[in-house]
Amino acid sequence: MDTPAVDDGFRIPDALWERLELLLPRVRPSPKGGRPRLAWRPVLDGIFYVLRTGCQWKAVPRAFGSGSSLHRYFQWLVRRGVFERLWDIALQEYDDLKGIDWEWQSLDGAITKAPLGGEKDGSKPHGSGEIGHEAQRADRGKWRPVGRGGGRRQYPRQMVGARDAGECAD
Asked: Which of 31, 68, 70, 112 is an S-S bond match for 46, by CB 3.0 to 4.6 Å?
């Protein structure tokens, strides 16, 4: 199975990689054996691909590795403080080159409607489980299989009156 090529613009440049490699934790193979760890360079290429594009982990091109492996490495690197150290180094270098006014800071952001996000006044994701204005019945239990066939448990409808039950009144 051929994996499609990834644009080199999404790969870490060699000069940056040489510096970044020094921040990565050294890991020894497990004495118990097992699957070897992935190479750092494609892993970091994949992590930065997700951070730059905003795609889901499972949508990362296979050339970087599986999305679940990349996410696991990302979480591990975050816990180890690698990205925080990288941020500190980048800030210090920028301060040396251009200078940072540490007394004044600004944050920029944008909030927009997500693509295919539905109508502006659509249902609220924080709403209750009600359909329309109907509350759920108090005796309704959670879904669970019943008997061999599975499915939902059925509850008898409450009888409002004799006419509703189909009985004739005298």
From this structure: 70
